[in-house]
Amino acid sequence: MPDAPNLAEGGDRPVILFDAECVLCSANALFVLKHDGAGHFRLASMQGPAGGAICRRHGVDPQNPASILIVDGDRVRRDSDAVLAIYEALGFPWQLFGLFRLVPAIVRDPVYRWIARHRYRLFGKRESCWVAPREYGSRIL
According to CATH, what is the number of the domain 4-132? Predict the structure, then answer.
């Protein structure tokens, strides 16, 4: 069987790894797909085979994800840095969220982690993983 996760990481586009059981996370994934007209990002569910393998490679338990990840070659972004990188790449007006970089990560990340820890209680948890609409199939690993 070919090693799809290595192909995913070695590609020319960053991969967003998200919790497909989280209502907030999957809504954000759909938002990215709809607003990333240039197709800059590919997405992978942490619970799926490709996404799970990439997560494990970077020290994240795909069965208990605590952060969103962006894997871009050898570079891995997580927590608030990953969220800001996504919105900065979507262009105007979404790139304005990059202004939050003025807030030090030592302040941003605890807020992100609090939301991440409580995301199921605050936003809900799906009984099965979210599946992207068919028209985005080429961008999903």
Answer: 3.40.30
Question: 58: Cβ–Cβ under 8 A, 6 or more apart, which residues?
Answer: 69, 71, 76
What percentage of the chain's residues is helix, strand, coil (to nearest 5)? 50, 15, 35
Report domain extents, the chain. Answer: 4-132
- Cβ contact 67:25 at 8 Å: no
pTM: 0.85
Q: Which tokens in the block code for residue 59?
A: 């020290």
Task: List average pLDDT for each run of 10 residues in the chain, which is 141 residues long.
Answer: 41 89 92 92 93 89 86 91 95 93 96 93 88 87 91
